[in-house]
Amino acid sequence: TTFAATAVVALENARLYNRTRRFNEQLEYEVHQRTRALQDAYEQLERLDRIKGDFIAVTAHELRSPITVIKAYSQLLQKKEGEAHGNYDDNLVTGIISGTNRLHDIVNTMLWMVKIDSKALEIFPEPLEMMELVGGIVKGLTADIATRKQRVIVDDSLTDLPSIVGDEDALKVVGMRGEEVLEK
Fold first, then answer.
1. Where are the beta strands (DSSP E) in 45-158?
2. Which residue from 27, 74, 83, 90 has the fewest beta carbons nearer than 10 Å?
3. CA angle 177–152–162, rounded 5-degree value
4. Residues 47-57: what's their mean pLDDT?
5. How far apart are CA 47 and CA 53, in angstroms?
6. Per-residue model confidence as pLDDT tens digits over 105-116
7. pLDDT at site 9
8. How far apart are the first and last CA of the chain?
9. Residue 138 · residue 154 · CB < 8 Å
């Protein structure tokens, strides 16, 4: 009787062990499948991100040529001498030039985004004077400020600010985003 009871317990333990082992194998299989699915999804996202970056870069480069042509012809129209332009025509040409400048800035920003996404952006920090930096940004926004009948007052206390270390081109890109703030 004792042997039979021990055999029953042993058989039950073997059955439970076998069941636990199969359950464990099933869980391991499912974990492996899910891990593989996550790896596949991650690879797909990386591929899509590369495609997106390539698309933006190609689009930006392709837009540069027609924008440059429009800008050049608009500037020629603006500088054309010998003909009397009406105020209306001058405003149209100025609007075309302003629009092409904005498009050019957008294309450049797109290229900056691609560089940032691909970790290819190189920053070249150098000492910069705050007054010159702010003055350059305000000068770049002068036409938009005037169009909106607004004004910008640069406080004289900026002349006392110390120089900073930064990448002038990168800071100009950030400054150009000020145009979007003015539009809102």
1. 126-128
2. 83
3. 80
4. 86
5. 10
6. 888 888 888 887
7. 92
8. 91
9. yes
